[in-house]
Amino acid sequence: MIISVNLGEKSYDITLERGALGRIGEVVGRGRRVCVVTDDGVPASTVQKAIDALEQNGIGTLTYTFPQGEESKSFDTYLALQKTLLDAHFTRKDAVVAVGGGVVGDLAGFAAATYMRGIDFYNVPTTVLSQVDSSIGGKTAVDFAGYKNMIGAFHQPRAVLIDPDVLLTLPRRQAANGLAEALKMGLTSDATLFSLFENETILPPAPAGRENATVADIADRTTMTLLERVIARAITVKRDVVQEDEKETGLRRVLNFGHTLGHAVESCLGLSELYHGECVAVGMAPMCGAQIRDRVVAALQRLGLPTALPDGVKIGRDALIEAIKHDKKAGKSTVTAVLCDEIGSFRFVDMTAEELVARM
Ligand SMILES: NC(=O)c1ccc[n+]([C@@H]2O[C@H](COP(=O)([O-])OP(=O)(O)OC[C@H]3O[C@@H](n4cnc5c(N)ncnc54)[C@H](O)[C@@H]3O)[C@@H](O)[C@H]2O)c1
Ligand SMILES: [Zn+2]
């Protein structure tokens, strides 16, 4: 399936199909070199498939691998990658291919956006989160001085290849983490997508005692087909939003649903406790009207996502308020919050940090 993103001369296609990874060579095209950027948590076999597909098309490759984790989404890694491109004499006709999750995509995309004022960037996202969210829309960045995504650029990819098969090696918890973002998109913008989460088992639970289960351990053919449907609908929601508002001056803020409280929880907890999508899951129900809140909580719980702070974890009201104030745009006393009263719809409301925390 091809989902086209129409952004004038920056338009590109997202290909969603099993085995899409093997098509990266023909998509990038002959007569140039490619730097494959990845991290050491992406299975070597997945990276090798991409390299083989490139080389079979006569494309010379070099690989830049950095340690997995958000800590690597840094200016240091960015500089080391730029140095690698420079030492290999990459020119403006060469390209960067990201094979990994959102950390790899954001970092590789920013490197491509700025190397020699911008070279071609291709994204092969390998986590659910990056397949449904971060690989679409052209936001690239690194974290800086304790702030997430502080230095970055809008740089649309030339193409995105989404291969659901690469998700088989992903830990179940990481998959659920990414599905939180897809559920969010259904909730605000696509009632049919939300109904899949309500009525189908998108991600079966891990067997008892197998907290480290991967998608392959729990998913059969039916669940993989369902997962693919969810990914397709979520991509379409995100595509529509980005087409309407590429640089986030209005509508694109709908994607922040659940994120204002979610980010506050995330920054109070620090990096290790809950994943980003899990924090967003905690931040979603409070932004829903009373008439749908129970349905949203039930859908999140079906994925095994948290809907409240884990047992034993306490964050004070004041700490959350401070975190929201820290996040908000300088000079404004309120934040634009996204509320959902009816599945598949949303409204923007300016709220103070105190009002937001009172909803939790
Ligand atoms: N650009 C955007 O619009 C945008 C949107 C949302 C999030 N983001 C960013 O995305 C990042 C989070 O992305 P993420 O959740 O993908 O995290 P991630 O990139 O850290 O990946 C999670 C973990 O999964 C591992 N992994 C990747 N693919 C795998 C596979 N196929 N099998 C097994 N393990 C695999 C990685 O090595 C990593 O350890 C954050 O930095 C966030 O800011 C960006
Ligand atoms: Zn998010």
N-to-C span: 40 Å
**What is the average per-residue confidence, as pLDDT, rounded to a whole number?**
94
- Note the total helix count: 14
Fill in the CATH topology of the largest domain.
Dehydroquinate synthase-like, alpha domain
For the sheet with most strands, the description reads:
7 strands, mixed
Q: Looking at this structure, what is the CATH superfamily of the largest domain?
A: Dehydroquinate synthase-like - alpha domain
- Which CATH first-tier class of the largest domain would you pick? Mainly Alpha
List the domain count as a whole number. 2
Summed up, what is this model?
The protein is 43% helix and 18% strand. The protein is α/β, with parallel strands linked by helices and 360 residues long. It is globular.
Can you tell me about this structure?
- With 360 residues, the chain is α/β, with parallel strands linked by helices.
- The chain has 2 domains: 2-168, Rossmann fold, CATH 3.40.50.1970; 179-358, Up-down Bundle (Dehydroquinate synthase-like, alpha domain), CATH 1.20.1090.10.
- 43% of the residues lie in helices and 18% in strands.
- It contains 14 helices and 11 strands.
- The strands form 3 sheets. A 7-stranded mixed beta sheet has the order 1-2-9-6-5-3-4, with helices on both faces.
- A hairpin with a 6-residue loop joins strand 1 and strand 2.
- Helix 6 (172-189) runs parallel beside helix 11 (276-284).
- The longest helix has 24 residues, at 221-244.
- It is globular.
- The mean pLDDT is 94.
- Nicotinamide-adenine-dinucleotide binds at residues 39, 41-43, 46, 68, 70, 73, 100-104, 106, 126-127, 129-130, 133-134, 137, 139, 148-149, 166, 169-170, 174.
